[in-house]
Amino acid sequence: MKKLKIEKPKKNNDTVTRTIRISGKTFDKINELAEKHGLSFNCVINQIIEYGLKNLEE
Which of 16, 36, 42, 52 is the most exposed place for a label (fewest CB within 10 A)? Predict the structure, then answer.
């Protein structure tokens, strides 16, 4: 499986606001990734979700 690569995304105005709950440990890891790459937390979350959906075994 291809590894996830965090990148600066193109602007996308097609968004939906939704509240989710994640563990503190996961939050910390994602926050570190966001800071390391100079991206927003939300941007990293979206990339992780897209990667997961593209690589989902059905």
Answer: 16
pLDDT digits (tens, 9 = 90+) for 35-48: 999 999 999 999 99
Domain carrying residue 42: 24-54
Instruction: Give the whole-angstrom CA distance, residue 45 versus residue 17.
Output: 13
- Please tell me the pTM assigned to this model: 0.80
Domain count within the chain: 1
Q: What is the 3-state secondary structure (H, E, C) of the chain?
A: CCCCCCCCCCCCCCCCCCCCCCCHHHHHHHHHHHHHHCCCHHHHHHHHHHHHHHCCCC
Assigned domain for 14 exists: no
